[in-house]
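Postdoc handover notes: sequence design on the structure in folder B. Input tokens:
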């Protein structure tokens, strides 16, 4: 097979639905886009790849009308266009599903789907017709079980993703942009999503698909455009024929081995640091028991909705257990108390780090020190210099880039934001680290770095509990694997003795190995 082109190449067949040429976008001190080219044909699934910081999000916002380019041209169906605001993009038939979903929790599913274009008669919203249309869209997406009358705030992350997709379909779009749509979906839901995308493409709707999961690109994509440092470094590549190693090289400028850090041999000595016994919450999980020793990584594998995240949040005190105990170094924690958990040495990196762990418009150093403010208090005042110094030391250790503790957290890539959350708990000198989807939305280069970092933290004596929707990640990174299905732990097995096939077999059948 010949090597794929590594410089932008225009499509050679078919009339373009969308053509973006030489797109440039500046922000203060940053050239986010430095001449990006993108061409999308009708009915194709066009994958856009690149590390965090490569310019993907900025490109999406230019295409959706949220940002105005400083230079370059946009052509839609052969005609030059300007997109001065998001409504102008929607009027053309461009719908965007952002990774950070822009739903209104207090409104119903149907109200969110048709927000801004509700069916009306004589000025009155036709609520019955709106709910019926919403139900049709949800059924088209393979989720007829989602009730259009349910408040969106009560849905899981996966449920909210489905609602956002239905909203995009409600605009009769010709082009749908999907930013990490599978990040909160389990494998069955991902396959349903791929089925929907295939149906859309077959009907002539184009999809721009962005994902860090390279295995998905080969399954769903037709062609690939790769961005690096705000530039298009490859375009028109065949998703089916381009080797993964070549895609990684284009994204990173180097070859990255898909290997997890080597596990230590032998079982950790001494008693458990974390001991969970008979933990339960009605409707979520029941009779969960396991131990974690210093230096050990224990992974929870299962489908979305199996209860994995709820178990972690209950251990941390964010949810109150109805039964059971959580013990750290022999001391039983008070149920439902985050303060007790933190004081005992627990730290949680939650699944939704941007909404649950970070203050995006605050400085990096304040996000690092917020769990340790008492350390920097002197006579009722905070020693900001000491805060900055302590935060900077931890951030340097974790190789957070770019440097500068006074920068806003929202300016960092997903991988570096995750490191900021880790730095918070390292500064607190936690004994047990609870990691919920630690590599969600993290590019392939930063992901390998996070794997090494998590293993180094365990080797330094931390007890780690890991939840991930990627079964290969749980098996590859953990020392032991707990398979969770329908809120119950089916097996507790050394990671070296279990395969992805084993895990899937158990969670699909719900049977103990």
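Designed sequence:
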């Amino acid at each position: 097979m010949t090597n794929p082109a590594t410089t932008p190449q225009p499509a050679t067949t078919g009339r373009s639905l969308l053509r973006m040429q030489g797109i440039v976008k500046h922000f203060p001190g940053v050239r986010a886009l430095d001449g990006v080219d993108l061409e999308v044909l009708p009915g194709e699934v066009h994958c856009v790849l690149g590390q965090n910081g490569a310019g993907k999000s900025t490109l999406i916002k230019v295409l959706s009308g949220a940002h105005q380019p400083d230079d370059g041209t946009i052509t839609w169906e052969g005609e030059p266009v300007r997109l001065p605001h998001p409504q102008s993009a929607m009027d053309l038939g461009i719908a965007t599903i952002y990774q950070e979903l822009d739903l209104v929790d207090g409104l119903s599913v149907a109200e969110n789907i048709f927000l801004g274009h509700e069916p009306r008669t004589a000025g009155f919203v036709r609520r019955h017709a709106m709910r019926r249309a919403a139900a049709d869209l949800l059924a088209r997406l393979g989720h007829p079980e989602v009730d259009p009358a349910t408040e969106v705030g009560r849905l899981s992350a996966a449920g909210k993703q489905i609602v956002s997709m239905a909203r995009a379909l409600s605009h009769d779009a010709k082009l749908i942009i999907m930013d990490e749509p599978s990040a909160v979906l389990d494998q069955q839901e991902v396959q349903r999503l791929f089925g929907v995308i295939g149906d859309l493409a077959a009907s002539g709707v184009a999809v721009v698909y962005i994902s860090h999961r390279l295995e998905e690109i080969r399954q769903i994509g037709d062609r690939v455009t790769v961005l690096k440092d705000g530039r298009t470094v490859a375009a028109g590549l065949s998703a089916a024929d381009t080797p993964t190693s070549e895609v990684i090289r284009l994204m990173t400028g180097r070859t990255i081995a898909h290997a997890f850090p080597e596990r230590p041999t032998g079982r950790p000595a001494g008693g458990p640091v974390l001991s969970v016994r008979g933990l339960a919450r009605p409707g979520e999980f029941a009779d969960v028991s396991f131990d974690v020793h210093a230096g050990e990584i224990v992974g929870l594998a299962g489908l979305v909705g199996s209860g994995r995240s709820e178990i972690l949040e209950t251990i941390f005190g964010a949810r109150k257990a109805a039964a059971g105990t959580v013990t750290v170094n022999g001391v039983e924690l008070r149920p439902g108390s985050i303060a007790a958990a933190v004081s005992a040495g627990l730290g949680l990196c939650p699944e939704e780090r941007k909404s649950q762990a970070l203050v995006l418009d605050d400085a990096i150093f304040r996000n690092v020190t917020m769990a340790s403010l008492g350390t920097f208090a002197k006579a009722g005042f905070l020693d900001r210099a000491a805060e900055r110094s302590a935060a900077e030391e931890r951030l340097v250790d974790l190789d957070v880039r770019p440097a500068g503790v006074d920068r806003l957290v929202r300016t960092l890539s997903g991988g570096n934001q995750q490191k900021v959350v880790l730095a918070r708990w390292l500064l607190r000198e936690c004994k047990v680290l609870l990691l919920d989807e630690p590599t969600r939305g993290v590019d392939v280069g930063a992901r390998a770095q996070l794997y090494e970092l998590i293993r180094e933290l365990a080797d330094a004596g931390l007890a780690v509990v890991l939840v991930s929707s990627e079964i290969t990640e749980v098996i590859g990174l953990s020392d032991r694997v707990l398979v969770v299905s329908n809120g119950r732990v089916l097996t507790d097995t050394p990671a070296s003795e279990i395969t992805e096939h084993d895990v899937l077999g158990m969670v699909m059948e719900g049977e103990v190995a």
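Context for whoever picks this up: Residues 286 and 488 are 6 Å apart (CA to CA). Don't rerun without checking with the PI first.
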